[in-house]
Amino acid sequence: MTRRRLGFWQWFAVVLVKPVMLVWTRRTWRGMEYLRRDGGVIIVPNHISHADPLVAAHFVYDSGRWPQFLGKASVFRVPLVGWILHRCRQIPVERGTVDAVRSLDALVAALAEGGAVVIYPEGTITREPELWPMKGKTGAARLALATGAPVVPVAMWGPERIFDPRRSRLNPRPRIPVTVVAGPPVDLSRWAGATPTKAVLEEMTDTIMLRLRDLLAEIRGGTAPPLWERPARPGDERRPEAAA
To answer: Phi, psi at residue 215, to the nearest 5°?
Structure first.
């Protein structure tokens, strides 16, 4: 598997992090077969806690793939930290600058090399009060359209018990139950070869987010709410909520 070809610093990260996660969490993993494939894959998890990147990385690694997360480019410029991140094959992303195009090129290159790229389509921890997915950003859709790589949704529930973003509270107790479920690749075939217009990217993103939301509903039970955006502040131009 891909992880057998890891370098020293990647193995160092595994030795450092995985024993902690084995003690800290009691895991239910499902759907790993959707990641056990050759070639590049775009993994889109829901984002519910500052702890869920560790849980997602553990899940992807246990599936036999090496997770490549996107990180703010400024972090990669921190002495030593950035050096280690580069050697662990993480991907710097420039936001809101002309260098953002280079970030897309780096992602395309990672997928061309058969990488497992992890993108949080919401862009940040969900602001939905009950931690359901909110309306996503178009980065994952843009990358899928540019590369044709499969987009695999990964729903997780439990990392919010490790670190609750609503209370900014860390829970250090061991064996916290976490559930992570990967689903089959999202069917985006209707947009194959389409021009990446705003409308096309938003339609693809909504399709990805709805599949991710429904996958999470299977874990949590009950009925998931529609995707939504935080209401505009008083005096701002009011934005319509996303209903699906």
So the answer is: -65, -40
pLDDT band for position 174 (cuts 50, 70, 90): very high
Separation CA 90–CA 67 (nearest Å) = 8
For the record, the structure tokens of 114 come out as 């058969």
d(CA 43, CA 96) in angstroms, rounded, equals 23
CA-atom Rg of the chain in angstroms:
18
Cα distance between residue 10 and residue 48, in whole Å: 25
Residue 98, number of CB atoms within 10 A of its CB: 7
* Beta strands in the chain, from DSSP E residues, in sequence order: 25-30, 41-45, 67-72, 91-93, 116-118, 151-157, 163-164, 169-170, 176-182
Residue 235 pLDDT > 60: no
- Please tell me whether residue 43 adopts helix, strand or coil conformation: strand
* Residue type, position 95, single letter: R
Q: What is the pLDDT of residues 94-103, one digit of tens each?
A: 766 555 666 7
> Which pLDDT belongs to residue 217?
95
Q: Which 3 state secondary structure label does DSSP give 5?
A: helix
pLDDT digit string, tens, across residues 32-67:
999 977 899 999 999 999 999 999 999 999 999 999
**Paired strand residues for 67:** 116
Tell me, what's the pLDDT at 242?
42
pTM, full prediction? 0.89
- Mean pLDDT, the chain, rounded, equals 88
Q: Are 154 and 182 in contact (CB under 8 A)?
A: yes
Q: In Å, how far are 15, 113, 165, 244 from 129, measured between CA atoms?
A: 35, 39, 10, 18
Q: What is the dihedral of CA 35, 39, 44, 48, to 10 degrees?
A: 60
